[in-house]
Amino acid sequence: MIPGAFEYHRPTSLEEAVALMGQHGFEARVLAGGQSLIPAMRYRLAQPAVLVDINRLPGLNQLSEEGGMLRVGALVRDTDVEFNSGIQSRYALIADVSRVVADPIVRFRGTVVGSLCHNDPAGDWTAAALASRAQVVIRGPAGERTEAIDDFLVDSFTTSIGEGEIAVEARFPVPGPRTSGAYEKIERKVGDYATAAAAVQLELTEDGRIQEVGIGVTAVALKALRVAEGERLLRGQKPTRDLIRAAAEEAAKIADPNPDARGSKEYKRDMARVLVGRGLIKALGRLGVQL
Amino acid sequence: MEIILNINGQDRKLDVEPRTLLAHAIRDLGLTGTHIGCDSSSCGVCTVLLDHNTPVKSCTMFAVSAEGHTITTVEGLAQGGNLHPIQQAFHDQHGLQCGYCTPGMMLASIALLERNPNPSEEDIRFALSGNLCRCTGYQNIVKAVQQAAQVMGKKSEGLGSAADD
């Protein structure tokens, strides 16, 4: 399968890239890792007239903490995260995700930001970004803006990136000492789309209450969802098995999965519940709380 | 588009369309050791190395994007008629049956050994989980990577002591 023909640009500066995107508008797509875009082009699900290859742009591979945020540039590959010992030891949720995105070879090329921009209904990074309350930095003709992940993820394969704009960075809050998380994913085999998955991150107060919590589920609706009602139930409370069970139920309530070879609607909906529960218990366990 | 790809140490001039996939460009040069299997970046038989240690699925990269990188295919592994330790190990351990996945398996294995010279069995199985083999059941592939790790480890020790002298 050969993709449709396109015009290829390989700019060497961000300004040049933004100008190209502005010039071609929605006819143009950004090529970063290409691990979702190229298969989509091969299946002719995507037929962009213009590709702007950003792989030679300087300054987009930063992976560092600044102002309380982990900055993940648009050219940071999944393996940059997977093989970074600092991230692996301190970012429990991100570390979990980095080992199960796609497959080990695809991760050498695929990018975190690209995955967010693709906004696949079964994406892993989208759920993780929701749970950790990430932001996306977008550069366009009018300058730079920062968007909260909830506003960024508009719908299936649709983000709030406007015409002529490029996502240049994702930002994840640096976890404090009483913050942990987990990613629970069911997949038929390595590299397959998730059957269902849940991302959770939570922060405890000194006396063991849940100060803040984020829960995202993926592959169980038309887009990754925040389980806001589950978060609300947990916030401010001392974690108990009953409370976790109730919060996990909220994931099943909002899940609206498509049945396919991976499972029925009922099964996937129930897995949303099960995986949120498991994720919360694992995250609490990592903070030394056994329930 | 005229591009130059550095493949196995040689600059090769190609005239490609931007949509030409790296796997096709490589094969069109007669380097047919890079196989095409699933055509959807699932199976890993088209794996090549960029810049010596970065494995990529060449069916999921445009040839034009590979410009400026060095590319290693299976044909570039043997040096001066001597098999690369990973090739010797796949041979010794019967790490293949039909051989279709083997080039990708070997290149992915080299990438693993480059960053983890002493991998556990679990590490090996994890690192190769994006490369599918439908013949072997993976047992002998794992053994082959273990053998190569040993041989390559000894070799670099040897180089170390030579440098110390």
From TrEMBL, chain A:
UniProt entry keywords in alphabetical sequence: FAD, Flavoprotein, Oxidoreductase
Coiled coil: none
Entry EC number(s): 1.2.5.3
Domain FAD-binding PCMH-type: 1-177
GO molecular function: carbon-monoxide oxygenase activity; FAD binding
InterPro entries: CO_DH_flav_C, CO_DH_flav_C_dom_sf, Diverse_Substr_Oxidored, FAD-bd_PCMH, FAD-bd_PCMH-like_sf, FAD-bd_PCMH_sub1, FAD-bd_PCMH_sub2, Mopterin_DH_FAD-bd
A Pfam family matched in the record: CO_deh_flav_C
Descriptive protein name: Carbon monoxide dehydrogenase medium chain
Gene source species: Meiothermus granaticius NBRC 107808
Source organism phylogeny: Bacteria, Thermotogati, Deinococcota, Deinococci, Thermales
UniProtKB/TrEMBL annotation, chain B:
Top-rank EC class of the record's enzyme: oxidoreductase
Keyword Oxidoreductase recorded: yes
Entry EC number(s): 1.2.5.3
Gene name of this polypeptide: cutS
Cross-referenced CDD domains: fer2
Protein name listed in UniProt: Carbon monoxide dehydrogenase small chain
Molecular function via GO: 2 iron, 2 sulfur cluster binding; carbon-monoxide oxygenase activity; metal ion binding
Record carries keyword Metal-binding: yes
Signal peptide residue numbers: none
Lineage: Bacteria, Thermotogati, Deinococcota, Deinococci, Thermales
